[in-house]
Amino acid sequence: MSLYNQFYQNQELQQYSQKATHCDSVLINQLRQCRCIMQSLTPDATKTLVHAFISSRLDYCNSQLFGVAEQQLKRLQSVQNAAARLVTGTRRSDHITPVLKVLHWMPVPQRIQYKMAMLVHKCLNERAPEYLITDCCWAGSRDSRTRSAGCQMLEVVRMNTSLGVRSFAAAAPRVWNGLPDVVRN
Questions:
Q1: Which helix (H) or strand (E) covers residue 12, if one does?
Q2: What is the pTM of this model?
Q3: Angle at alpha carbon of residue 69, lines to 104 and 93, rounded to 5°
Q4: Which residues, in sequence order, are CB contacts of 133 under 8 Å at separation 6+?
Q5: Cβ count near 135 (within 10 Å)
Q6: Alpha carbon distance 153, 142 (integer Å)
Q7: What CA–CA distances, in Å, run from 15 to 12, 68, 108, 161, 176?
Q8: Rounded to whole angstroms, how far apart are CA atoms 114 and 63?
Q9: In this predicted model, what pLDDT tens digit does every residue of 49-90 receive, in sequence order?
Q10: Helix, strand, coil percentages, rounded to 5, for the chain
Q11: DSSP H or E run through 150
């Protein structure tokens, strides 16, 4: 890999990190604003407000967050945890996992994988943009004699850079192929 490519790749990774940090700070500010008016809202209105401002922002373009550093995901997870505490009124010292289960909220890493798998499902059913559909090719579609020809597996594109591995063309097939057979069929 050339020095220019390494420099470009490092800049791209820094931009993703900055986007996640910016998103994190925006979400924290929105949570503070919600907390100020929470006394005036019903529990259902609070839940709707948090969904509108926080959950939608967490889900927006989260396929770009696939493969991002664990530290960045932890920051976004802490924002989601704070939103769950705001909606349910639980204390900071209480365990958050049961609260997330009651709200039917998945942790951030699972949300990202779920959204990626849903996007692949839409691609396979031709309900996604054409530029994404072309990235999802069945394994063995070129050679029907391969072992995976009868399975519902996608062809995994090999990439040479860590940024390329995070791209939709490379990450989506890995997420899809990692699903249990029952879900894929």
A1: helix 3-37
A2: 0.80
A3: 45
A4: 123, 126
A5: 20
A6: 13
A7: 5, 11, 20, 16, 27
A8: 10
A9: 999 988 888 888 777 888 888 988 898 999 999 999 999 999
A10: 70, 0, 30
A11: none
